TrEMBL record, chains A, B:
Full protein name: DNA-binding transcriptional regulator, MocR family, contains an aminotransferase domain
Domain of life: Bacteria
Keywords: Aminotransferase, DNA-binding, Pyridoxal phosphate, Transcription, Transcription regulation, Transferase
Similarity comment: family membership: Belongs to the class-I pyridoxal-phosphate-dependent aminotransferase family. In the C-terminal section; belongs to the class-I pyridoxal-phosphate-dependent aminotransferase family.
Entry-linked PROSITE patterns: HTH_GNTR
Quaternary data: Homodimer.
Amino acid sequence: MNLNLSRKSKTPLYLQVYRSLKQKILKNDLKENTRLPAVRTLADENSLNPSTVVKAYEKLKEEKLIYKKVGSGSYVSSAKNIKIHEDYDDYVNDKIDSTQMNVKNNINFASATPSHDLFPIEDFKNAINHVLDRDGGKAFDYQNTQGYISLRKHISDFLITKNMNSSYKDIQIVSGAQQAIDIISKIFINEGDNIAIETPSYSGALASFKERKAKIHSFNITKNGIDLDELENFLQKDKINFLYCMPNFQNPTGMIMDLESKKRLIDMSVNYDFFIVEDDCISELNYFNEDVVSLKSLDKNNKVIYIKSYSKIFMPGLRLGYMVFPKSLSTKIISTKYSSDISTSGLNQRAFDLYLKNGDYDKHINKINDLFKKRFLHTKKLIEKYSKYFEMVFIPKGGVYFWLKLKNHNFDNFIYKCRINGVSLLPEKYFNTENKNLNNTFRISFSDTSLEQITNGFEIMKNILDDDFTEENIQPIV
Amino acid sequence: MNLNLSRKSKTPLYLQVYRSLKQKILKNDLKENTRLPAVRTLADENSLNPSTVVKAYEKLKEEKLIYKKVGSGSYVSSAKNIKIHEDYDDYVNDKIDSTQMNVKNNINFASATPSHDLFPIEDFKNAINHVLDRDGGKAFDYQNTQGYISLRKHISDFLITKNMNSSYKDIQIVSGAQQAIDIISKIFINEGDNIAIETPSYSGALASFKERKAKIHSFNITKNGIDLDELENFLQKDKINFLYCMPNFQNPTGMIMDLESKKRLIDMSVNYDFFIVEDDCISELNYFNEDVVSLKSLDKNNKVIYIKSYSKIFMPGLRLGYMVFPKSLSTKIISTKYSSDISTSGLNQRAFDLYLKNGDYDKHINKINDLFKKRFLHTKKLIEKYSKYFEMVFIPKGGVYFWLKLKNHNFDNFIYKCRINGVSLLPEKYFNTENKNLNNTFRISFSDTSLEQITNGFEIMKNILDDDFTEENIQPIV
């Protein structure tokens, strides 16, 4: 077995051996229950000291990629023991650097941001060049910490059409919604403070809350959004600093809170004195005229902080979003933004401002909406077709994802097989808030998949699951 | 007296009255010790309820802008009681939004970033357009959280020429150096933890450390950089998590640590087990071939985190910088960057990468260096010329600022008069780390001033100080 080792590399040889074997296992070149070469054989074939091979095998065994049988040697573990995405960062880095990803046969049900062929590059390029000609160096000077005033005014005008009567002074431009979450965490969380969140929920928010060492309490999503009875039971005993929630097309379930629940939540925020952090990343993708009224528009008591992301409906790499805050928080928010990164890129703010002003943004959203509605309906039909395998835990009302439950099959095995067969999914653990058992659920998103890819993806999943029974039967007991 | 009130505005009338009068006082239209109109007179002249005027006068009095004499009415306070920059944010927002600032006669000794006519807009515009044509939507997709790989590789190649042999895997791209400081604060500071810092130092760093509730210990700058004896005395009794310092052309003193001190500091970081956070914002502006060796290049024990800012030498609004970290910190830094803002703007990273590759950056730095050396020498000559008024506390070896001490004059009065006469300075309080008395010192920066403006600025300051004696003499005791 040739391991392609490099004597010139700074990487120790045992690590090279380990990596080379790991790759073969993950690529399925070394299939489960295959016997690995004896230590001495592999050492001789690659001119290695046997102890180097022993060290590599030990590392593989530690990671449960191989197992030992006494007197018989080492074998490749069964697929379900092989964990793939070790952590979110790896996953993100992996997905993100698309120049380096092997996209052959890849069906990306994992990403909730549009494929970049949907980005309006030409229009945005025009906006950028217009800004550079108009503003010159000003576009690259420090910007106002709160955000470019003209952009804030445009946003304020837009918000009025959504019954959010906030002045541009109540708007903070951020370098993406994640930064808004980070700013809120800094302001509202000290170690051990109680906050509340939905289950399942967005992992990036969770990461930020955990970093501040919050005590995170999670409440289930129901068909009307977060379970308000559960929440109220808790609030009768305990205080929270804020609730983080996505009332419209929640990530990952696609659920929407009904108006009555929204009003009740607003009342609760007053009665139990907490802030509501309303994350709106996708309310534009409203295919069936749902009433996507925001909590902010119902808020008469300055209890709602509204966060707007453009990553899922426009271009994530622009790193632009905003928050609308109660006046009393103004100084805290601006100074926390200042100490976070001083201000957001001027060129991006100014170009986006112009793009909004030209009406190009509205055109873009209409286009995306039409396209994604087709994908939504197509995906829904396929889930229904394959109802033998999948349960639609909630029936989403808009947005770009479905939250599915795998029926009657080994979950880890399914996720792993999807991965090695080129279908990326996000299993429950990426949305898990308190290590609750989410019962073999996962998110399927269609932002980055064509209708054809959606069809193919479901067929691959079906084939995996049909094979699954057979494979489970032949698994040895070790 | 006409107050230009608007009945249509949402701003309450008493606030309008207050603002109008405040403006007249700050503009010196209402000079010190002038008697204000009687309440009823002003009310009649502007068709106001007298209680509105009373409320406005009270607010002015609270802010010590006016004072009352019993039985005689209200008077404008003496100038030295009138505080101008209430806080840094106000200042920053003020300076930053240059479209709205009254720049007539303004001499900006406050800013340490270049005026935007020095930004290489045409070259950078070409780089942006090249990137958009080459990469299309990829430029607006999420980027690798650690940073665009090609940019990190270029930086790594550059670092090797500075004896910093760090791989691109040890580099984290950040949205400006402030974000690097924020990331470090998040990782290394829990409430009450000890950290060390120079006095005077950069206020943005201080804001971030305070936000994390660090116990900040500050050590004086000497002619060889931070006072290592003082620091070592402290370390013999107490532990610090890190020292934040600027060893080359320190902000605001312009001082440089000599090589021997740098080596001693590195040894101390090992012996007393702490990290050194080395902030390098300006080592390129080296007019006299000083040995600007970085602490990172001397670091054999993985104790130095190096932060590079481009704001003072290139374009601050680009919001780009990087940090070089010891391998052991890799996971923490990348995941903290992730939860801060996921990734830095792809377009800016890619355009800057191309700009570096084209060699345009080196050309730009050479140009800036030549220009700033002239300003440096010119400013130094003027300080020497006006040595009756100013003491050069340190003789800087490079960079863009001088740290001056005002001799024999009322400091607050001087700062205030500079402001109203169109000369912006940054007084000690913006660099103060523990409310230490910095003895009437201030920073003068020439990044944003022509040679002619520098000359004019010093003349204005001289005139202010020559008048000063007279004015002090006529100040009434109230």
